[in-house]
């Protein structure tokens, strides 16, 4: 097969232009679905990875309740059962830990002057900001003595600061009111963006956990602790130590189930990527079916084409064309059809990905690998589904073919 | 002695159509020397088309031997037959059999497309144009078959048959779809090619067309009934001149 064969194939396809386009449609849709589906998946994965990194270094989270059994939601909703003594024991007895902080989550009205807003207020220890590798834009962290004495001090996230003080203002030294009580702003944190589940991590006010319990929630138990290990390699060991310690302290002996859960960063990220993975699988399945149907469409049209051009095949055979020459001619047409469909599909897929991002703010990332794969798959479809019609053409008897009306 | 171009020895061809065996050709001996101009005549079912298909290497004998230019065709496979058709034979059909929507010159180039070793595109074009010139169609070479008359289409077909310098030109009812004047023109071209040394084998059922050849073989029921040289041979150019004179006379009297 050479350039001349290709030229003949292009001419034959141009002759039935509309038919060629319609034949390509299955391949176009299939490839476009693959490209946009994979780009959705990769985009979601990239975003999750970014937000996992924004959680901090080597983070472990201890939740009250057992999440193995009921999934994520159940753990979140269970009664808090982590105590102040648990927290102190963790600080005291676990080795290889860079920082430990309890978390007291609540929503409260935060006000400055006439501006006020319902915002997430998080009671934490002095290690929290460091553990989450959260730098300061201005000011500084509250101290361990602030935590011990339950002082009325706070740190602001960028979004919270913006609503209260306006864009670009430095709130450090100002007094804000949280649930009516006055708190001095010690520091302004850098922006961290959205977290793994899509909510804004900067719309937050951090206060010492002691103050949060005493003045905001009235609780004495904790829902969760944040622990940061010294190194990635220490995480498993730290996770095991925490589990061991809390079992001891909560007097849990098998077969009783743990009443707490220790999760590391990766597990959280995996949970978050599950949704996008399901989506990718569904889209890939649709794409696969569409490619199969597209391939059958190509085979169908090539069979019609062979029948229509029986006389032409007869002429070609009569003047000395070999079966293999005729076969290549039809195979070239089929491959060209599917490759053109693939190329169009790739273009449409890239375009669709852009549209998805613009309209729904879903992150998409077109991966070069998916383009290469889509292109090879469409070539393969051309070969596989073009082969039978081409073989049929090649095996025609020249006398019969010449007589065909 | 010079080797004959075509040699059929006790050639037989049997078809199986369902349960019935059809003996299309039942033992034919035929020798055609280089430079001959031979017409094979016969009614339909006489076996002349079957014989032509075999001579054209589109089919193989059931029994007997067929030697084309000294090569035993019976033992060749599909690809070897294709190569023989490409290099040694040129076909002209009743229905012209040109590729539709393809220009005259590209139709003529078709056999060279399958020639091994291949020629450059420029050389193919040069030869195709020369071949068209030879059959008197130097102009209109970029016209498609639908833009050409029947006679012109048959000239393109002849040019295509000649383009690979074959040993034998095979014509199957070449004038069957043409009016009488165009038929004479086409026969004139065959005569002219034969005068230049080309071997021409033609199938026809028209006796007056056969008179332009040098030798006539008549077939009936799968056997050769007669094989004689043409005595009162017609010449294409003379007949055309006669036809013109006749028409002039008709116009004068009218």
Describe what this molecule looks like in 3D.
The complex is a heterodimer of chains A (405) and B (254). Chain A has 405 residues and is an alpha+beta fold. In chain A, helix 2 crosses helix 12 and helix 10 runs antiparallel to helix 12. Chain B is α/β, with parallel strands linked by helices. Chain B has a domain of 175 residues: Rossmann fold (3-Layer(aba) Sandwich). Helices cover 37% and strands 26% of the residues of chain B. Chain B is built from 8 helices and 10 strands. In chain B, a hairpin with a 2-residue loop joins strand 1 and strand 2. The mean pLDDT of chain B is 92.
Assembly context of the chains: heterodimer
User: How many individual domains of chain A?
Assistant: 2
CATH fold call of the domain at 6-95 and 169-253 in chain B: Rossmann fold
- Radius of gyration of chain B, in Å, reads 19 Å
Top-tier CATH class of the domain at 6-95 and 169-253 in chain B: Alpha Beta
Strand order of the largest sheet of chain B: 6-7-8-3-9-10
Number of strands of chain A: 10
> How many strands in all of chain B?
10
**% residues in beta strands of chain A:** 15-25%
Order of helices and strands of chain B: EEEHEEHEHHHEHEHEEH
Proportion of residues in helical segments of chain A? 55-70%
Write down the overall geometry of chain B. Answer: globular
Radius of gyration computed on alpha carbons of chain A: 32 Å
Q: How far is the first residue's CA from the last residue's CA of chain B?
A: 59 Å
Number of helices of chain A: 14
Task: Give the SSE string of chain A.
Answer: HHEHHEEHEHEHEEEHEHEHHHHH
Average pLDDT confidence of chain A is: 87
Quickly count the helices of chain B.
8
The CATH superfamily of the domain at 6-95 and 169-253 in chain B is P-loop containing nucleotide triphosphate hydrolases
Named at the architecture level, the CATH assignment of the domain at 6-95 and 169-253 in chain B is 3-Layer(aba) Sandwich
Large-scale geometry of chain A: elongated
């Amino acid at each position: 097969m050479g350039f001349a064969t290709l030229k003949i194939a292009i001419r034959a396809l141009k002759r039935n232009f509309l038919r060629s386009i319609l034949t390509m449609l299955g391949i176009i849709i299939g490839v476009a679905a693959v490209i946009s589906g994979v780009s959705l998946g990769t985009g979601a994965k990239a975003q999750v990875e970014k937000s996992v990194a924004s959680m901090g270094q080597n983070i472990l989270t201890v939740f009250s309740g057992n999440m193995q059994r009921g999934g994520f939601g159940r753990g979140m909703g269970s009664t808090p059962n982590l105590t102040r003594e648990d927290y102190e024991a963790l600080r005291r007895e676990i080795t290889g830990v860079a920082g430990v902080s309890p978390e007291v989550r609540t929503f409260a009205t935060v006000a400055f002057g006439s501006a006020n807003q319902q915002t997430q207020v998080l009671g934490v220890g002095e290690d929290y900001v460091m553990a989450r590798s959260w730098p300061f834009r201005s000011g500084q962290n509250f101290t361990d003595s602030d935590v011990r004495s339950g002082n009325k001090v706070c740190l602001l996230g960028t979004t919270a600061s913006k609503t209260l003080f306006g864009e670009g203002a430095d709130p450090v030294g100002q007094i804000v009111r949280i649930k009516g009580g006055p708190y001095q702003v010690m520091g302004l944190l850098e922006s961290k963006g959205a977290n793994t589940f899509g909510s804004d991590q900067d719309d937050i006010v951090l206060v010492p956990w002691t103050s949060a319990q005493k003045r905001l929630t009235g609780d004495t138990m904790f829902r969760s602790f944040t622990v940061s290990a010294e190194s990635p390699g220490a995480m498993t060991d730290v996770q095991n130590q925490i589990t061991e310690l809390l079992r001891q302290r909560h007097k849990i002996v098998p077969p009783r189930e743990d009443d707490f859960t220790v999760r590391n960063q990766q597990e959280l990220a995996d949970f978050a990527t599950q949704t996008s993975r399901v989506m990718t699988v569904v889209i890939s399945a649709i794409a696969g079916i569409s490619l199969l149907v597209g391939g059958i469409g190509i085979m169908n049209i090539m069979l019609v084409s062979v029948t229509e051009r029986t006389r032409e095949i007869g002429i070609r055979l009569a003047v000395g064309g070999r079966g293999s020459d005729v076969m290549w001619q039809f195979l070239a047409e089929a491959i060209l059809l599917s490759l053109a469909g693939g190329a169009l599909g790739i273009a449409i897929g890239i375009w669709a990905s852009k549209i998805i991002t613009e309209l729904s703010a879903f992150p998409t990332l077109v991966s070069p690998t998916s383009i290469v794969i889509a292109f090879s798959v469409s070539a393969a479809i051309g070969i596989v589904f073009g082969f039978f019609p081409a073989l049929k053409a090649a095996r025609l008897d020249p006398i019969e073919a010449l007589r065909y009306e | 002695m010079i080797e004959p171009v075509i040699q059929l020895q006790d050639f037989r061809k049997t078809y199986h159509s369902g349960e019935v065996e059809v003996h299309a050709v039942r033992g034919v001996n035929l020798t055609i020397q280089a430079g001959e101009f031979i017409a094979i005549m016969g009614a339909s079912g006489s076996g002349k088309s079957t014989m032509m298909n075999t001579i054209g290497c589109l089919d193989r004998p059931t029994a007997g031997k067929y030697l084309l230019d000294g090569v035993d065709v019976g033992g060749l496979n599909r690809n070897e037959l294709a190569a023989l058709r490409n290099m040694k034979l040129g076909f002209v059909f009743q229905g012209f059999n040109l590729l539709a929507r393809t220009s005259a010159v590209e139709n003529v180039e078709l056999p060279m497309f399958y020639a091994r070793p291949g020629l450059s595109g420029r050389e193919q074009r040069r030869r195709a144009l020369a071949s068209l010139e030879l059959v008197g169609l130097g102009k209109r070479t970029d016209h498609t078959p639908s833009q050409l008359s029947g006679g012109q289409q048959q000239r393109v077909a002849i040019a295509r048959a000649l383009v690979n310098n074959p040993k034998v030109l095979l014509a199957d009812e070449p004038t069957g779809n043409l009016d009488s004047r165009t038929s004479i023109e086409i026969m004139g071209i065959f005569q002219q090619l034969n005068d230049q040394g080309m071997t021409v084998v033609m199938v026809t059922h028209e006796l007056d067309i056969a008179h332009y050849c040098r030798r006539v073989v008549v077939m009936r029921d799968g056997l050769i009934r007669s094989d004689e040289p043409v005595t009162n041979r017609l010449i294409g150019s003379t007949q055309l001149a006669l036809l013109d004179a006749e028409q002039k006379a008709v116009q004068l009297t009218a």
